[in-house]
Design brief:
Chain B is built from eleven helices and two strands. By secondary structure, chain B is mainly alpha-helical. In chain C, strands 6-7-8-3-9-10-12-11 form an eight-stranded mixed β-sheet, sandwiched between helices. Chain C has a four-stranded antiparallel β-sheet with strand order 2-1-4-5. The longest helix of chain C is centred in the middle third of the chain and has 18 residues, at about 190-205. Classes of the chains: A alpha/beta, B mainly alpha, C alpha/beta. Chain B: It is found in: Cell membrane.
């Protein structure tokens, strides 16, 4: 296990979905298929914070679900610690499940509305066969680890703020003692002022626990700041990858350039807009129209 | 005072609370009918026939001199029992089938279940009830050592007919819950699908089922009354609101109004009560109504 | 610099929510001005009262909330206490609104062109042909290509950005004087967000509509707004031209907000944050509500309410603003 490369690898992952069409077409077997993930290969080093950037519909969430094995890829291999996870034995499957956890976008559905926070964490620990007094102690230390007051254990999810709910989501994942944490848009539902708190928490966990983090976001600025490696995804493919500075300041792919150009930049953006007029924006209108045309 | 307010909140507001109170009183009086009813509902007394309501017979007497108030109270037993047991049957099997369809989702079995349920629920309930009672007859059915009374038949039939609606309701809310992130998180903890269905999904889809079940109690009362009214349900001399109404119909022209008005009023009151209760519970379970807690945004 | 009688003038607006048995002020005395044709940004965290302030103008507050005092003078008329009928008329004609989720504003079973057409024919004296021509013009203005074909599309057939454009076209079809945009780009991708911002900018330029733009991102506000009002705990804590707020923010909250915006620069290491949480709307506030989270707070801030510091065109509510 000394080798750090090959810790977590995706090899030529594809995920296809059949488009729903009429009954006749389905019977003929000719239902067209669309690839949400179209041949993605990635290698993630142990202890890295790996950033995956892309916009909605680019396949990044599908990829996240493949990484944690909520769905199986149509083709390709997920390799964890040198073993193909599709061929693990039952006992190893369980270990993999616990080792690779996920933090979801806080849309209000990431916590069961009928369960108090204590129960959410207790159930996670119970899945690891930690119960009773040991569980109580661990719940307390989990809450401390994510910076939440133990008072909140008695609350229901709707009685917490978005940032607090997201911390509970992280605590729930940590309860499984994971090695890899996939965070799918963990801050996009939060206020700008709170985003940093969650991102910093993830980055602290990376440093203190050696947790490998795969941070998925549409926000290039956030990802570039904390990640050691980033990859940009568009239409199911990785279009650019590298160190954050390199991607940010020397992008080679036109899509990456457009993504960078779209980030609001305050007064600078204002003068840019006023200087160039609406024409500058019209130039950027192309991709959505293409997507729109593709949806027809 | 504070407790009362919490109680009103539990029923989703004053209207729901009123519905709950009326429904509760009806239930109590039907359970304790032997204590509450002033006379024997079956005791014939030809000398006292067709008396107008007065202080001894608050709701008057019928053509055989039986006390109408006592018959209304005893009649609530047949009505509530039929409606109640039908709902129990409907909820039990409906929820089970709905969850099962969710469990086998994505396969042909799910499709088959849903198509059958849709086919059954495309025909109105009352038509089913009358058609089936018509087929199976009004008399008790002997089935080996078992005697199936016509009330029991009605209960089971009504219950079976409730199943599709409740199953589809459960299925639709369960499908939404199964796709949510908290369920994904449970899967990542290695918890089995069946366990997730019962411990996480089921509690979150019960609220619409409870609301629907309450409204179905009201429907059950009406169906029982309608079926008994046309002579296919609860058989005389056992009183039920439906067959009392049916009997009272013969005396409307001759002016003995109390024979129809009181059982009719009982039906209306009960149906209104259950509807108020159902609407109240719907308001309570709807998360959009539970403001003032948490953060205002 | 500002005309004597602005298009919209909000004075001492208080909005309260029922919390248990008592009414609690969530918006606690907001003053706001929007001149004709001006774009004003309203920024704050969730729970700051920015959305409630916006919703109170066309009086579409959520159930449980009410305006408890204050005046909302729009085009010379006080909208608070205006009869329902007069208010409805205003809402349809002079004040338009777009939301974060366009699906809530669009009817799912009617083609989008038809929805704009119906709205125009209800609110304006306009003929069939003229209305169709105007819809085509509006759809083109909001950046929809092939507007003639797109008019027949149903809302679900359009992408999120397209729906936002259609909703904007619907909103401005009645030639309103004020467009309220409540976080219109929060649910959108960055590239689409840039397009929608461009579209709003074009609309205010070409139609001369005043816009009240609500967002939690100051950088976004700076791109299209002339002035910005920063809200915290139900009050405007700083208000000025975008240039001076960015160049010399007077309120520590504004400074911290500016610091928190993720920017594409060479910085690494922990992201700047504002520690703690905004106060809950049902908590009692003593002194400056931002003091518990403020790194410059002194004892004075914690005990007594800060004064309002004013300079021509600039306002800040802080003890140390001067």
């Amino acid at each position: 296990m000394a080798k750090t490369e090959g810790f977590f690898e995706l090899q030529d992952i594809r995920k296809e979905y059949a488009l729903r069409r009429g009954l006749l077409q389905r019977l003929r077997g000719g239902a067209p298929r669309v690839a949400a993930v179209d041949g993605v290969s990635l290698s993630i080093e142990r202890g890295a914070i790996f950033g995956l950037v892309g916009e909605s519909g680019c396949g990044k969430s599908t990829l996240a679900q493949i990484i944690v094995r909520l769905i199986e890829p149509t083709a390709g291999k997920v390799v964890y610690r040198g073993a193909d996870v599709a061929r693990l034995k039952a006992e190893e499957q369980r270990t993999f499940r616990h080792a690779v956890q996920m933090v979801f976008q806080d849309t209000g559905s990431s916590l069961n509305p009928r369960k108090r926070i204590r129960r959410v964490l207790a159930e996670a620990l119970a899945a690891r066969s930690v119960t009773g007094a040991a569980a109580e102690g661990e719940i307390a230390s989990l809450m401390h680890q994510v910076g939440l007051d133990a008072m909140l254990l008695r609350r229901f999810p709707h009685e917490l703020s978005g940032g607090q709910r997201q911390r509970v989501g992280i605590a729930r994942a940590l309860a499984m003692k994971p090695e890899v944490l996939v965070a799918d848009e963990p801050v996009s539902a939060l206020d700008v002022s709170l985003q940093g708190q969650i991102i910093n928490l993830l980055s602290d966990l990376n440093r203190e626990l050696g947790l490998t983090i795969i941070l998925i976001s549409h926000d290039l600025a956030v990802v570039a700041r904390v990640c050691t490696q980033i990859a940009v995804m568009n239409a199911g493919k990785i279009v650019e990858r590298g160190a954050p500075r390199q991607v940010l300041f020397h992008p080679t792919d036109p899509y990456t350039r457009m993504l960078i150009a779209s980030v609001p930049r305050g007064l600078a953006g204002r003068s840019r807009r006023q200087g160039l007029g609406p024409a500058a924006v019209d130039g950027a209108a192309a991709p959505e129209d293409e997507r729109q045309a593709a949806a027809d | 005072m504070n407790r009362l307010r919490r109680l009103v909140h539990f029923f989703g507001g004053p209207a729901g609370f009123a519905g709950g109170c009326i429904a509760g009183l009806l239930l109590l009086s039907s359970i304790f009918a032997p204590l509450v009813a002033p006379y024997d509902p079956l005791a014939v007394n030809i000398l006292d026939k067709l008396l107008e309501p007065d202080e001894t017979h608050w709701m008057g007497t019928d053509q055989s001199g039986r006390d109408v108030l006592s018959r209304v109270i005893w009649g609530s037993r047949a009505s509530l029992a039929v409606a109640g047991f039908a709902v129990v049957i409907g909820v039990t099997f409906g929820v089970a089938i709905g969850l099962f369809a969710t469990w086998v989702r994505g396969g042909w079995l799910e499709q088959a279940i849903m198509r059958v349920l849709e086919a059954v629920s495309s025909i109105p309930l009352l038509i089913w009830a009358i058609a089936l009672v018509g087929i199976f007859g009004v008399r008790d059915v002997q089935w080996g050592p078992l005697t199936i009374s016509s009330e029991l038949k009605l209960m089971v039939l009504l219950g079976l007919l409730y199943i599709p609606t409740l199953a589809r309701l459960t299925y639709i809310s369960a499908l939404a819950e199964v796709a949510s992130n908290y369920v994904a998180a449970r899967r990542l903890q290695g918890v089995g699908e069946l366990r997730i269905l019962f411990s996480d999904v089921l509690p979150n889809c019960l609220s619409p089922v409870i609301v629907q079940a309450t409204l179905m109690l009201a429907i059950g009362i009406i169906v029982e009354a309608a079926v008994s009214f046309v002579g296919l349900g609860v058989q005389p001399p056992t009183p039920s609101w439906g067959n009392m109404l049916s009997n009272g119909r013969n005396y409307l022209i001759s002016g003995e109004w109390w024979l129809s008005v009181f059982p009719g009023a009982a039906i209306s009151l009960t149906v209104v009560a259950f509807n108020l209760l159902g609407d109240g519970l719907r308001d309570r379970f709807d998360p959009r109504h539970s403001t003032t807690m948490g953060y205002a945004t | 610099m500002m005309p004597a009688d602005p298009l919209l003038r909000i004075d001492g607006l208080h909005i309260s929510f029922k919390a248990g048995q008592q009414w609690r002020d969530v918006v606690r005395g907001v003053d706001l001005r929007v001149a004709a044709g001006e774009v004003v940004g309203l920024v704050g965290e969730s729970g700051s009262g920015k959305s409630l302030t916006a919703l109170s103008i066309p009086q579409v507050l959520p159930p449980g909330a009410r305006i408890s005092s204050g005046r909302i003078v729009f085009d010379g008329t006080d909208l608070v206490g205006l009869p329902r009928k007069a208010m409805n008329e205003r809402r349809g004609r002079d004040i338009a609104m777009i939301f974060q989720d366009p699906l809530t504003a669009l009817n799912p079973v009617i083609p989008v062109g038809r929805q704009i057409y119906d709205s125009m024919r209800t609110h304006q004296a306009i003929g069939h042909k003229a209305a169709l021509a105007r819809i085509e013009e509006l759809l083109a203005l909001v950046g929809i290509r092939h507007p003639r074909e797109r008019m027949r599309a149903y809302p679900h057939e359009l992408s999120g950005g397209m729906r936002q454009r259609v909703m904007t076209a619907l909103a401005v079809s009645s030639n309103p004087k004020l467009l309220i945009a409540d976080e219109p780009t929060t649910a959108l991708d960055v590239t689409v967000q840039a397009q929608v911002i461009g579209m709003l900018d074009r609309i205010r330029r070409e139609l001369g509509i005043a816009v009240l733009f609500i967002s939690h991102n100051l950088d976004l506000i700076a791109e299209i707004c002339d002035r910005v009002c920063v809200m915290y705990a139900g009050k405007v804590v700083e208000s000025s031209s975008v240039e001076s707020v960015f160049a010399a923010p007077r309120h520590p909250y504004t400074r911290q907000l500016l610091r928190c915006i993720p920017r594409l620069d060479a910085d690494t290491g922990p992201m700047p944050t504002i520690p703690g949480l905004p106060p809950r709307f049902d908590s009692d506030l003593v002194g400056c509500p931002f003091a518990p989270r403020c790194d410059e707070a002194s004892d004075r801030c914690r005990t007594s309410e800060p004064p309002t510091w004013r300079e021509p065109g600039h306002l800040a509510v802080c003890w140390d603003a001067a």
